[in-house]
Amino acid sequence: MMDDLIPDVNRDLMLDANAVGGMLYDIFGVEMTASPTECAHCGNEAELATLLAFTQAPGIVLRCSACEQVVLRIVQTTDSILLDARGAVCLRISKPKLLPKEIPLENDSLGG
Ligand SMILES: [Zn+2]
């Protein structure tokens, strides 16, 4: 049988983009859903939120919406995050936006 050329994708396990966005935010600390990625398999360029996302405990698998190959795998352990990005030509992660004026609290302003 040559069926293994067809990706084994179980769409029942698919997450919606909002659920994925929340998890990615937890992991990276920045909004990731609009981050551009490029599929290493077919060259499809897409925002992260448009990838097909699946939970395969203990991680998340993001597949290309065009060719359904795996683009990213993210696994969280108790003390680390494993990111397998071999299916992505590139992945842009925005730096967290700093507050424009972060004023350090000064103890002496409390009076006393
Ligand atoms: Zn692709």
Describe the protein.
- 19% of the residues are buried.
- The protein has one helix at residues 17-28, and strands at residues 14-15, 36-39, 45-47, 52-56, 59-63, 70-76, 81-84, 88-91.
- The chain is 11% helix and 30% strand.
- The protein has one domain.
- The mean pLDDT is 81.
- The strands form two sheets. The protein has a five-stranded antiparallel beta sheet with strand order 1-4-5-6-7.
- The radius of gyration is 19 Å and the shape is elongated.
- It is built from one helix and eight strands; from the N terminus they run βαβββββββ.
- The chain is mostly beta strands.
- The structure holds zinc ion.
- Residues 39, 41-42, 44, 64, 66-67, 69 line the site of zinc ion (ZN).
- The site of zinc ion has 8 residues, from loops.
Q: Could you give a quick summary of the protein structure above?
A:
The protein is mainly beta. Helices cover 11% and strands 30% of the residues.
SSE blueprint and pairings:
Blueprint: E1 14-15, H1 17-28, E2 36-39, E3 45-47, E4 52-56, E5 59-63, E6 70-76, E7 81-84, E8 88-91
Zinc ion is lined by residues 39, 41-42, 44, 64, 66-67, 69.
Give the tags.
1 helix; mainly beta; 5-stranded antiparallel beta sheet; 8 strands; binds zinc ion; 112 residues
